[in-house]
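Quick one: structure for this chain?
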Amino acid sequence: MKQSTIIKCPDCGERAFIKTTINVSDGFSNLYCICSNVECNASLVFSLYLSYHITPPRSAMSDDARKSLAVLPRSERRQIAYMLEK
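Got it. Here's what it folds into:
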């Protein structure tokens, strides 16, 4: 299933399309967009940044920790991930 990013123009409320993405640093990008409404025609720059991980990447965990987390309910795994981000 393909997921697409929808950016909403703050001026007219129509969809804005991402034309270019500039990666400023790890976890931070600028999205250069243009509004799809020809009457608005706004050019926009949105900043996108990573706030936190819901689940840490597999490479950051040992096999034992991964197996232990796998048996927990999703809500408990999210709580653990949130605590680890602090």
